[in-house]
Amino acid sequence: QSALTQPASVSGSPGQSITISCSGTSSDVGGYNSVSWYQQYPAKAPKLMIYDVSNRPSGVSNRFSGSKSVNTASLTISGLQAEDEADYYCSSYTSGSTPYVFGTGTKVTVL
Amino acid sequence: EVQLLESGGGLVQPGGSLRLSCAASGFTFSIYAMHWVRQAPGKGLEWVSGMSANSGGNTYYADSVRGRFTISRDNIKNTLYLQMNSLRVEDTAVYYCAKKFGLVGTTTQRAFDIWGQGTMVTVSS
Hints:
The complex is a heterodimer of chains A (111) and B (125). Chain A has strands spanning 9-12, 18-23, 35-40, 47-50, 64-69, 72-77, 86-93, 100-102, 106-110. In chain A, a hairpin with a 6-residue loop joins strand 7 and strand 8 (100-102). Chain A contains no helices and nine strands. Helix content of chain A is 0%, strand content 43%. With 125 residues, chain B is mostly beta strands. Chain B contains no helices and eleven strands. The relative contact order of chain B is 0.30.
C-alpha cells in the first residue's frame, strides 16, 4: 500500500488561508469518506483535526476545514496563526492489503 | 482523563525481540479497536497494526511487519500489546498506540482520536 501524496511544504502569512492536498486512489481516498487529518508538533504525538473528510472533533478550531474531490482530499487552514506551524498528515481507510494508509506529510510554515 | 501510556521500547540488536505495551485508562477499552502507528526518525507516520475490539478478534498488519509482529490485547487489564520479533534496523522508530475514534462495528469515524506519547525502539548493533 503506497503512502498518500502530500506536498512537502506549504507556507503562508498570518491571517492568510492555506490548503494542503492529499492525493490517493479509488482504493483509498476516492473509495471511502474516511479521510482524516492530523497535526503534529516536533517530538509530540499527532492530534486528530478532521475525520470523515470534513468533520471536526470537539475542541478543534473552526479555522480547520476538510473536503474531498474524487481521489484528492484537502485540508484548509484559514486565518493562519503562528501556532498552526506544524506537520500535517492525512490518512484514509483503504481496501488494500492494510486498512489504513497515511500521507507523506506536509510541513506548514507561518511566515 | 482519557489516556494511553506506552512502554517497553529500548535498544535491541538486529534479529532481536521486544514487546511493547499500551495501558489505556479513562474510556471503555473493550469496545474500541486499537492500533499501532510508528514514525522513524525524521520521517512520516506509518500505520503498523490494528486489532478489533474483542480479545482474539481480527488482526491486521502492514506488509512490512506481517509475519514478524503480533498484536494482541487484554480487555481485563485494558492493555494493548505488540510483540516484535526478527527486528530490523528499519524498524527503528517511535511507536504510538492509538484508539480508533468510532465504536466497534461502525463504518464512520475511521480515524485515531487518542494517541499515546510514544515509545522509542532502536534496532542497532
